């Protein structure tokens, strides 16, 4: 892999009060790659995404976005630098319609027409449901809406937290096909998942978190092999 990675974390630590949750995390997302960050519940995955997106300040270590040191940058500054996070639980506004949710994405700059055209061509389902309240959509459709909203900002790096949470396997597969398409269009992606299979199918690289550290990185096939040992074998 050549060139500056889109994201590089070096020795990142973070804590809630006195409780250290990230204990020196090193992680690289090469430009244009899909990286799957796997790990059991409580491993620190969401906390790591919070640090990357500026919602939490690390107590130590460095975060580089496109080669630029960004530790301590605000979420707004990071958004302008090309970062976009789809949070766990999706972050759509349930009492607004699909179309209103997409309008709000234009707040950050791009024109409404362009956002709608792109969203509806990628997700025809959203067009059918454009006048429905987002809260009345199925889980998979809500996830499509949050992906469409995040793509409106034309991100360089997309962070996805537990895309598959609560969704049927077939829907998860379809969403991951979309993730692969988004990556083919040049967006780098860091996807966090507790359940590994779909994420590993589309990932170029994978990493496993355990107890606030990245304990293994490699090609998806390699990581797939190691997973049960790492989850249940208590390596720390
Ligand atoms: N807001 C919080 N305050 C205190 N502890 C937290 C908070 N959020 C998460 N934690 C703790 O931090 C650890 C890592 O959580 P998290 O990053 O959510 O893990 P994951 O996303 O891998 O499930 C867990 O032990 C969790 O209980
Ligand atoms: Mg989480």
Report on the structure:
The protein is an alpha/beta fold and 236 residues long. The chain has two domains: 1-82 and 156-236, 3-Layer(aba) Sandwich (Rossmann fold), CATH 3.40.50.300; 94-154. Helices cover 36% and strands 26% of the residues. The protein contains nine helices and ten strands. It has helices spanning 45-52, 75-80, 98-105, 112-122, 124-128, 139-151, 169-184, 197-202, 220-232; strands spanning 7-16, 19-29, 34-38, 60-65, 68-69, 83-86, 157-161, 188-193, 205-210, 213-218. Strands 6-7-8-3-9-10 form a six-stranded mixed β-sheet, sandwiched between helices. Strands 2-1-4-5 form a four-stranded antiparallel β-sheet, with helices on one face. Strand 1 (7-16) and strand 2 (19-29) form a beta hairpin. The radius of gyration is 17 Å and the shape is globular. The model has no long low-confidence stretch (mean pLDDT 92). The protein binds adenosine-5'-diphosphate and magnesium ion. Magnesium ion binds next to helix 1.
Q: Give me the secondary-structure category.
A: alpha/beta
Provide the CATH superfamily of the largest domain.
P-loop containing nucleotide triphosphate hydrolases
CATH class term of the largest domain: Alpha Beta
Strand order of the largest sheet: 6-7-8-3-9-10
Q: Give the low-confidence spans.
A: none
Could you give the count of β-strands? 10
Strand content: 25-35%
Order of helices and strands: EEEHEEHEHHHHEHEHEEH
Span between N and C termini? 28 Å
What is the helix fraction of residues, given as a range?
A: 25-40%
């Amino acid at each position: 892999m050549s060139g500056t990675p889109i994201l590089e974390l070096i020795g990142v630590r973070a804590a809630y009060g006195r409780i250290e949750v990230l204990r020196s995390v090193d992680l690289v997302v090469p430009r244009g790659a899909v990286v799957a960050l796997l790990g059991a519940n409580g491993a620190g995955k969401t906390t790591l995404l919070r640090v990357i997106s500026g919602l939490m300040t690390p107590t130590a270590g460095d975060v580089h976005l496109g080669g630029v040191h960004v530790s301590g940058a605000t979420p707004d500054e990071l958004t302008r630098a090309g970062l976009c996070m789809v949070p766990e639980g999706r972050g759509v506004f349930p009492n607004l319609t699909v179309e209103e949710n997409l309008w709000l994405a234009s707040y950050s700059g791009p024109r409404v027409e362009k956002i709608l055209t792109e969203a509806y061509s990628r997700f025809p389902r959203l067009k059918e449901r454009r006048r429905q309240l987002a809260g009345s959509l199925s889980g998979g459709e809500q996830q499509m809406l949050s992906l469409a909203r995040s793509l409106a900002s034309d991100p360089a790096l997309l962070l996805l937290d537990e895309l598959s949470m609560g969704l049927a396997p077939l829907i998860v597969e379809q969403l991951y096909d979309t993730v692969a398409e988004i990556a083919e269009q040049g967006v780098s992606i860091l996807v966090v998942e507790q359940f590994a299979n779909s994420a590993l199918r589309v990932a170029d690289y994978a990493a496993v978190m355990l107890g606030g550290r990245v304990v293994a990185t490699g090609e998806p096939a390699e990581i797939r092999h190691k997973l049960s040992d790492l989850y249940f074998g208590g390596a720390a």
